[in-house]
Design brief:
- By secondary structure, the protein is an alpha/beta fold.
- Helices cover about 35% and strands about 10% of the residues.
- The strands form two sheets. A seven-stranded mixed beta sheet has the order 2-3-6-7-8-9-10. A three-stranded mixed beta sheet has the order 1-5-4.
Length: about 350
């Protein structure tokens, strides 16, 4: 059994799919089991590599995702959430979705200039842009790099609608931008809270802020007039599912307007990493947890199909949905939706000058 590293989520650094080298295996639902890598090295230090993308707005056409474009200022995430469905993207760099994902990060310092250029293109059609859909835009390195802040400044200047998804109270740093935008119907924030138990949170999301700090951030955002959602994503059977009602009660008390939840997803390399995490932290419950997950996912560790991947299936999924719906009704959540405005958008000028200015 692999040992947990201090303040890291993954217990192992499994080999990745070799996207950039010859002989890579086909992209299946998840990889074949690989030998665990545990070299007894000391606690890992975080490194950051500058990335130079040609564009910054990512597009998707997924029918079960409520946005068609997003921005990710960083690749990899130091929060180290063991369940993170973005972990397999590190394989594109021939890095491990395990410890590499949370310790070998990439930053995109030209993101704001690229964003301004893309928004200025003739024919650009304004739709809400989501930040934090892949990795957290307010992870610890944002304090130094401030790339998310720069992107928010561009969107604010252009009166472009946006949503932010984060599990960090660092988001309150940018209330000075988010509150005026929210007053115009241009901004909303989703705070991810998966557990209120600090012991569970510490192993599940080892470098994410304490759950109480996140609830305080919800209150500060709500008091500033920013619409706040609370995401219980993922719900992990037999680990965190008993907390659904308590999280919703605390979210409503803090001023959240709405909430949603997702059963845990284990795509690609996430499945073996998650099983190794269970063996290290919840060995007595590991078999039960995986059995319930497979019952929700049609007998597999992961269900990649549109729509069902977000909801799950079977009695366990139905029970979670019923409990969630009853608790939301009890606490006055999800009574109304927040529609962001696109009619105020004003395309930026001088984008090329910004992009190539020294």
């Amino acid at each position: 059994m692999a040992k947990a590293r201090p303040v890291r989520g993954a217990t192992v650094n499994r080999a990745s799919r070799r996207f950039n080298l010859p002989g890579h295996e086909p992209d299946g639902d998840w990889l074949d089991m690989r030998d665990m890598v545990d070299d007894g090295a000391p606690p890992l230090r975080t490194t950051v590599t500058v990335e130079h993308p040609r564009t910054i707005i990512a597009r998707n056409a997924s029918p079960d995702i409520p946005f068609d474009r997003s921005i990710n200022p960083y690749r990899g995430c130091e929060h180290g959430c063991i369940y993170c469905f973005a972990r397999p993207t590190h394989a594109f760099h021939d890095l491990s979705p395990g410890l590499d994902f949370e310790s070998r990060l990439f930053a995109k310092p030209m993101a704001a200039a690229l964003l301004r250029s893309e928004l200025a293109r003739p024919g650009y059609v304004c739709r809400p842009i989501s930040l934090g859909t892949n990795t957290d835009p307010f992870q610890p390195i944002e304090t130094q790099w401030r790339i998310t802040r720069q992107c928010l400044e561009v969107l604010s200047d252009c009166r472009h609608p946006l949503t932010v998804t984060t599990k960090s109270d660092r988001v309150v740093r940018d209330i000075d931008l988010l509150a005026p935008m929210a007053a115009r119907g241009l901004a909303a924030v989703t705070m991810s809270i998966t557990s209120l138990d600090p012991l569970i949170a510490r192993t599940l999301e080892p470098r994410a802020p304490h759950p109480e700090r996140r609830l305080t951030a919800v209150r500060r955002l709500a008091d500033a007039g920013v619409p706040v959602y609370v995401s219980i994503a993922p719900v992990i059977p037999a680990i965190t599912d008993h907390e659904i009602e308590h999280i919703l009660a605390r979210a409503a008390e803090a001023g959240a307007r709405a909430s949603f939840f997702l059963p845990v997803r284990l795509p690609h390399e996430v499945a073996p990493l998650f099983r190794a995490w269970l063996d290290a932290h919840f060995p007595n419950r590991a078999d039960k947890v995986m059995a319930i997950i497979r019952s929700i996912r049609g007998g597999r560790d992961n269900d990649p199909d549109f729509f069902s991947r977000m909801r799950g299936q079977g009695p366990w999924a139905d029970l979670l949905q019923t409990r969630f719906r009853i608790a939301c009704r009890k606490h006055g959540l999800n009574r109304e939706t927040t529609a962001l405005r696109c009619d105020l958008f004003s395309a930026p000028a001088g984008a090329q000058g910004e992009l190539f200015r020294a």
